[in-house]
Amino acid sequence: MAEALTIGAKEIAGHEFLAFTLGKEEYGIDILKVQEIRGYEAVTRIANAPEFIKGVINLRGIIIPVVDMRIKFNLGTPVYDQFTVVIILNIGGRIVGMVVDSVSDVTTLTPEQVKPAPEMGTAFSTEYMIGLGTIDERMLILVDIDKLMASPEMGLIESLAA
């Protein structure tokens, strides 16, 4: 039995991650946080909301905020095409949509495939990274999506249920 790798109190051995792209980089989030994946559709803008909050959508009677991660992390001007998707997340009982360039696959990472995140000057704060996952020639930036969505600058989730 493989020993579980723990990075920042997150046990990630054998966890499955949904891989998605933002710009030229590939990211991964815990698949258990993903409720569904939808094609990008028009959103209803909310007055005075931060620019990265695209607006809200009605998801089967539930109004959910939609965040464009490309705008949030200054990754250039977003282009909405047939590959653009909204990942519907369930974070601490709160439903949130996250716009990304595309999704590629779901992958299982072993402890040997996950390395701690180095400190670096990127648009994406290492504070929200679990580590780096390596799959052959690919590298996934593993995101602590709970911590990111609950961060004060996102202002989307007041507090996470323990």
TrEMBL record:
GO cellular component: cytosol
SMART domains: CheW
Keywords, comma-separated and alphabetical: Cytoplasm
Cross-referenced Gene3D superfamilies: CheA-289, Domain 4, SH3 Domains
InterPro entries: CheW (IPR039315), CheW-like_dom_sf (IPR036061), CheW-lke_dom (IPR002545)
Keyword set includes Cytoplasm: yes
Gene Ontology terms: biological process: chemotaxis; signal transduction
Span of domain CheW-like: 14-154
Coiled-coil parts of chain: none
Subcellular location: Cytoplasm
Domain of life: Bacteria
Protein name: Chemotaxis protein CheW
Species classification: Bacteria, Pseudomonadati, Pseudomonadota, Betaproteobacteria, Burkholderiales
